[in-house]
Every structure is written in structure tokens, then in C-alpha cells.
């Protein structure tokens, strides 16, 4: 089945272009669109997509507020923020709110589709260009950046997680069950003192694991 996606951006032309790019190879279906954050929440509730792609700057209720509202749901969809190079502060805030993906609007179509598929599978997606700009600005990002407490297997899991791999993909790579990988991921997050996979991936990038 195709990954079901809702797009949120106040520029209709951009939404139309993204829809064409995402649906080109049949792996993704755009099931809804929104022009602001308030509309996005309603559209997501109506369609229950696998992934939401949301711009941060929209009139009325902006993307960050929409992310905050969606993340309060018991089972929220995977959320990726679409941004541009001059919006690093917004990305940092979205990270704190629990967004699982950070993508640039000028990403290559293949990379964008792959990111959406990975998000739907439970992965964390960071465009390398965003990562490079974001890390120096995360002064308030408090985490245990020492990996000394991680076992060899936990470091393997962290490295794969930092590459955006889902639990299923990590399990296949390491010949483990998904339940075992889920347990490893939980332990890695706890030992690093982070709240989610994206923050763990940032730690991995900071210390040079990935």
C-alpha cells in the first residue's frame, strides 16, 4: 500500500508540485492538503495519514503550533518539517516539539520520497544540510554526548538509527527481532538522555558516530 501523506503549506503551487513529485513512482499518495496549521489538524483528523509534511511559516496557526497540537494525540502520524536554510531557529523548536523529520524544500524528488517512506516505517529523517547547520545552534539541547555507557550492539543500533533506519530495517541489518531492536532503541535513548530518535541521531552526528 502507498504511504498516505498530508501536505501543509500556504503556497498552493508548492503543494501541487510536491504532490506531483511524491506520487510519481506510486509509493506515496497525497490524501489531503492544508494552507495553515488549523486546517492541517482538521485534515489530518479526517484522513488519518501515515505522514504529515508541514511548513513552519503559515498564516494564522503556524506549522510549529500544528506540530505541537498533533503531538498531543495518543497516536500521532509521523511529522516532518519542511524548511529553508534561513529558518534554523524554527527547526530547533520543531525538534523540541517532537518532529521526526527535517527536510529542505529543494530536496531531490527521490530523496523526498525515500524520506517519506522511511518516516512511515518509523525512521527519523534529517537532511544532511540541515544537520550541519542545526548542530551549532542547539545550545539548549542537553544530552549525554558520551557514548561510553553504550554497549557495542547499542552503538550499532545508534549508527543505523542515525541513518534514518526504521526498527524493521535495523532488525534486518543486525539479524534481530523488531522487539529486540525496540528495546535497544529505548535503552539508547535513555542512556543518551534524549527524548526521541531525531535527538539521538543528532547526538550521533555530534560525536561522529555517523
UniProtKB/TrEMBL annotation:
Any coiled-coil regions, as ranges: none
BP GO terms, sorted: phosphorelay signal transduction system; regulation of DNA-templated transcription
Pfam families membership: GerE (PF00196), Response_reg (PF00072)
GO MF annotation list: DNA binding
Keyword Cell membrane appears in the UniProt entry: no
Keyword Transcription regulation: yes
SMART domains (UniProt xref): HTH_LUXR (SM00421), REC (SM00448)
PROSITE patterns for this protein: HTH_LUXR_2 (PS50043), RESPONSE_REGULATORY (PS50110)
SUPFAM superfamilies linked: C-terminal effector domain of the bipartite response regulators, CheY-like
Domain annotation Response regulatory: ranges: 4-120
InterPro entries per UniProt: CheY-like_superfamily, NreC/VraR/RcsB-like_REC, Sig_transdc_resp-reg_C-effctor, Sig_transdc_resp-reg_receiver, Tscrpt_reg_LuxR_C, WalR-like
Domain of life: Bacteria
Occurrences of domain HTH luxR-type (ranges): 143-208
Keywords: DNA-binding, Phosphoprotein, Transcription, Transcription regulation
Modified residues (4-aspartylphosphate): 55
The protein's name: Transcriptional regulator
Lineage of source species: Bacteria, Bacillati, Actinomycetota, Actinomycetes, Pseudonocardiales
Amino acid at each position: 500500500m502507498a504511504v498516505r501523506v498530508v501536505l501543509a503549506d500556504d503556497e498552493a503551487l508548492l503543494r501541487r508540485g510536491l504532490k506531483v513529485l511524491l506520487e510519481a513512482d506510486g509509493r506515496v499518495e497525497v490524501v489531503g492538503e492544508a494552507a495553515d496549521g488549523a486546517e492541517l489538524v482538521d485534515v489530518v483528523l479526517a484522513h488519518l495519514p501515515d505522514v504529515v509534511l508541514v511548513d513552519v511559516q503559515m498564516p494564522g496557526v503556524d506549522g510549529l503550533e500544528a506540530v505541537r497540537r498533533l503531538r498531543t494525540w495518543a497516536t500521532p502520524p509521523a511529522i516532518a518539517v519542511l524548511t529553508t536554510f534561513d529558518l534554523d531557529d524554527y527547526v530547533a523548536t520543531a525538534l523540541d516539539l517532537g518532529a521526526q523529520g527535517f527536510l529542505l524544500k529543494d530536496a531531490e524528488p527521490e530523496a523526498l520520497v525515500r524520506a517519506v517512506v522511511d518516516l512511515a516505517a518509523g525512521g527519523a529523517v534529517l537532511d544532511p544540510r540541515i544537520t550541519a547547520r542545526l548542530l551549532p545552534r542547539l545550545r539548549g539541547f542537553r544530552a549525554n554526548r558520551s557514548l561510553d555507557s553504550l554497549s557495542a550492539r547499542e552503538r550499532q543500533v545508534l549508527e543505523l538509527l542515525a541513518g534514518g533506519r526504521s526498527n524493521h530495517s535495523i532488525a534486518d541489518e543486525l539479524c534481530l527481532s523488531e522487539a529486540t531492536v525496540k528495546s535497544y532503541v529505548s535503552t539508547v535513548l535513555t542512556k543518551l538522555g534524549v527524548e526521541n530518535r531525531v535527538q539521538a541521531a543528532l547526538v550521533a552526528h555530534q560525536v561522529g558516530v555517523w
